[in-house]
Amino acid sequence: MPAKVAVIGSGISGISAAHKLIENNCAVTIFDQGKNPGGRLGLRSLRNIPFVNRPVDVGAAYFTISDPIFQNKVDDWQQLGLVHKWTDTFHVFSDYEISTTTGPMRYATKKGLRSLAIHELGALTKMGVKVLQERKIAKVKVNSNYVKVDNEEFDAVVLAMPGIQAARIIENDEIANELNKQNWASALSAWFVIDSDTPKYDAMFVNNHEVISLIVNDGKRRGDNAPVINVITTSDYAKQRLDNFANFVDEVIDHALEIWNIQSEVVEKGITRWSIAQPSPATRPELPQRLAIVGDAYSDNPRIESAWLDGVAVLNQLEMLN
After folding, report:
1. pLDDT > 70: what percent of the chain?
2. Cα dihedral sign for 66, 28, 178, 181?
3. What span, in angstroms and rounded, lies between the C-alpha atoms of 282 and 182?
4. Largest pairwise CA distance in the chain
5. Fewer CB in a 10 Å sphere around the end CB: N or C, the chain?
6. pLDDT average, residue stretch 230-254
């Protein structure tokens, strides 16, 4: 009989862990409390003509590649038309001067980064994985012969979520205390549409600014040149405004308009909050043999790629399944 494994979280690390567990002939169930999959692959849809239902990435802005395992996965996505190369050059705004910086190729998607999670979950479902969205888990309790997820028993459980969220459901004070030591940056993510052509910049890092950390031309990122802009705030600015974040959409957008010298009228706008946006590198706590935790926090360089790779390596924590 195959080992019965629960994966709690349908973000990138949970999805890649589920793939690895299926390869190892496990019976996998994915639980996620959200209405939509993808974790921090946040997405919103525009409401107004001519861009009704056009997606805007409001979580992770892009991804890069440095590892051959992740390169193979991205190659698959490219062949399916799910992702495309975007740019290796960003502008930099620092002390009211603008320069450019070249780095690794950034990849983006036409339908939003969340579309990758939707695609992968569809593939996993065809392999027999049970996917349960809007299923909030209240507690996880490890016993010697099984792990109890609420009232259901599993042979093993993978916590595919930020440690400070996992700490709320794990019934082990020592582990919870360790997970609560993780440090996560917050962010507000605003988006807006202007009534003119798309701006000339692909994206811009904003340094030494009290409000803005990144501005992205979503039209160039998406490849349709729509005049849609995404703005990410600094963590310090966001943390003071999480409770009433909606009141600050105009302030955030006004700063972006000033930095990019946009004179056009804003015809649609919105803002969302990420109280748990970006981790500082963390040490994975020692866990019982039937429990694993995965995510980008356990990398020296937290990002989408490291989340995928940590899920791929899940069996290193669950040796009892090998």
Report:
1. 100
2. positive
3. 6
4. 65
5. N
6. 98
170 with 285, same domain: the answer is yes
- Domain co-membership, 178 together with 309: yes
Range of the domain at 285: 1-41+113-182+280-322
Q: Which of 199, 221, 297, 288 is nearest to 63 (CA)?
A: 221
Based on the structure, what is the number of domains in the chain?
A: 2
What phi and psi values does residue 149 have, to the nearest 5 degrees? -105, 105
Q: Are 124 and 20 in contact (CB under 8 A)?
A: no
307 and 275 share one domain: no
Q: Judge contact between 62 and 102, C-beta under 8 A.
A: no
Q: How many residues does the chain have?
A: 322
What are the E-state strand segments in 221-317?
228-233, 266-279, 291-293
pLDDT tens track for 96-119: 999 999 999 999 999 999 999 999
Distance CA 233, CA 189 (A): 7
Question: Model pTM greater than 0.85?
Answer: yes
Strands 97-108 and 130-132: unpaired
Which letter does DSSP use for residue 150 in this model?
A: T
Lay out the sheet containing 84-94: strands in order across. Answer: 97-108, 84-94, 203-207, 212-217, 228-233, 184-194, 266-279
CA atoms within 13 A on the CB side of 271: 22
Mean pLDDT, range 174-203, rounded to an integer: 97
How far is it, in rounded angstroms, from Cα 232 to Cα 111?
A: 20
pLDDT of residue 1 exceeding 90, the answer is no
The count of other CB atoms within 10 Å of the CB of residue 77 is 17
Dihedral pair phi/psi, residue 232, rounded to 5°: -110, 130
CATH value at residue 117:
3.50.50.60
For residue 85, pLDDT beyond 90? yes
Tokens 């939707």 locate to 118
Residue 300, SS3 per DSSP: coil
**Is the peptide bond prior to 285 cis by the omega test (within 30 degrees of 0)?**
no
Q: How confident is the model at residue 322 (pLDDT cuts 50, 70, 90)?
A: confident
Q: What is the pLDDT of residues 49-67, one digit of tens each?
A: 999 999 999 999 999 999 9
